[in-house]
User: Fold this.
Amino acid sequence: MNVTVTPEPEFLRAEVSGEFSLAEAERTFLEVLDAIDVQNEKVLFDGRQITGELTTMERFYYGEFVALNLSRYSEQSGHPAPQFAYVLQEPVLDPERFGETVAANRGMNVKAFDNLEAAVEWLR
Assistant:
């Protein structure tokens, strides 16, 4: 999976593409975390170019991984954890939003969308 991170006035945009694998998804999330600075209170994760089908367990593990690592980032940096909006398409986007629920239950301010404009509006 490939990630391009671009700072924008209102948020940090991360565009991710490629075939989904859990290990690659975790690696790309850590790249996004590395790009965050104190001015980034919001992250738009545009994964509409990610392909593949995720299992329920992959959704669980990814949600757990991102929430744990975002919490670690916040503790180590002393800054609040940014708000994350994920823009995905089915089948990568789960209509039931299981991964979102896993991450949110672990304290992450996150929401998944199938529409870029709705994600940007939520971040505002």
